[in-house]
Amino acid sequence: MGVDVTVNNLTKSFGKQLIWADVSLTLPAGEISVMLGPSGTGKSVFLKALIGLIKPDNGSILIEGTDIASCSEKELYEVRKLFGVLFQDGAMFGSMNLYDNVAFPLREHTKKSESEIRDIVMEKMDLVGLLGAEFKLPGEISGGMRKRAGLARALVLDPEILLIDEPDSGLDPVRTSFINQLFIDLNAQIDATFLIVTHDVHSVRVVPDQIGLLYHKHLAMYGPREMLLSSPEPVVRQFLNAQTVGPIGMSEEKDADQLAAEKDIQLPALPPIPLQLEPSNGIPRRSQRPPGEWCRLNGVTPPPGSFTKEAEHASGSQQG
């Protein structure tokens, strides 16, 4: 079972450069959250702050009563046992085969016998579809397989919080779809709290329960998937629908002249909200909500054609 992660008024700078300020949100226990935003907005910095690799300037990060931002090294060591982390490139040890890479956290942080370690490693490798590849070196397999091996390693200590940095980086659309389905299936099985950092708009539209958008040194919006996908907020609308018209430009923010030139341009209609991915076994996840529930409860009319199979295909076609 996952745990809540509560972030209050988090601020981080490097020297005089402000990365983001006053970020507040709660990652709900057992749900899949996604954090996205233009390049350079500090998404990976946010992940590092959550696990205590970077200390924020102000604010708190509460996990089961412990504030990651101000706790002692001993307390931080204990809280980190709740985490599993999938780094952007898998972060495999190149001289170790996949089995030893996945076994590494168990050998470092537990007193389990090699027999017990083998059972756990093989279970997690089976979970990510890598049985039969355990004796290959990272350099002998594809980028997608390295990411799955990194995911198996992140799972061996049975984390309650899983942090995933750019899982689709370097993957083609087919492999990205496979890994998206894997995240859904894993969440259904282990019920951990997921936070995924990604740029992939299609993944954001079909995978998460919650979406956050970092922009212009602050958290522009965070909330249920349907809330953001139906939002008229210019930044949210532009980013989630991969549009050129809006406040985001090539250098993060457009200047006044660029915005003035666009003021009479008619924005395209919001695309239909696709169905959220379901577990492969067809059994809904604990945190999965009925399609359209948030819109209905909040009196929001979703874009025409939402929550149909056709909307799912239309969302997939945006990816190209």
From TrEMBL:
Domain ABC transporter: 5-241
Region listing for Disordered, in residue ranges: 271-320
Keywords for this protein: ATP-binding, Nucleotide-binding, Transport
Protein's recorded name: ABC transporter ATP-binding protein
Native source species: Nocardioides immobilis
Transmembrane stretches, start-end: none
SMART domains according to UniProt: AAA
Domain of life: Bacteria
GO molecular function: ATP binding; ATP hydrolysis activity
